[in-house]
Design goal:
2 copies of one chain form a homodimer. With 94 residues, chain A is an alpha+beta fold. Chain A contains 3 helices and 4 strands; from the N terminus they run E-H-E-E-H-H-E. The first copy, chain A, is 39% helix and 32% strand.
Chain lengths: 94, 94
């Protein structure tokens, strides 16, 4: 199993819009990606957003990035992000 | 729901011993903490260890820290850690 920590750079004042688009995406991931086991939006005490993600394997990560819902979400995020995400990929130790 | 990212500082050469102790602790968490929803040991490409954790609420985090299995694990980790963990606490956005 593989894990991803995605730190997202949201523009100040756009938090509410961002959360709506991201939670819609999370719902689509949960409903359409059998290879995804976690896709959880979190917010730290400083207001920074992080998505915690777990995938069955590399194929499941590729399927996520290639999915229609993921590609379609790009339009929703337009104007909400202050910069690129910071992605950390990890392997799950079992 | 609450999330924790715990970055763990493992001494070089102690990785195998650390994984055994940590996976035993993770099994105890999974078997004994109904308020914990995720306790997943991960390793990044540089060999750094991270535990991704999800809890129902503050009470569940307190129950984790106060549990006999958590307190007992301290002896197992003795000599394996290179410094204190770096803990990030977050709220889950739902």
């Amino acid at each position: 199993m593989l894990a991803v920590i995605a730190k997202l750079n949201v523009k100040a004042g756009k938090e509410e819009d961002f959360e709506k688009v991201m939670l819609d995406l999370a719902a689509a991931v949960n409903n359409n990606e059998p290879g995804n086991h976690l896709y959880q939006l979190c917010k730290d005490a400083d207001g920074n957003y992080v998505v915690l993600e777990l995938y069955e394997d590399e194929e499941a990560i590729a399927a996520h990035g290639a999915s229609e819902h993921f590609k379609a979400s790009g339009a929703g995020f337009k104007g909400l992000m202050g910069g690129p995400p910071e992605i950390t990929r990890m392997t799950v130790v079992e």
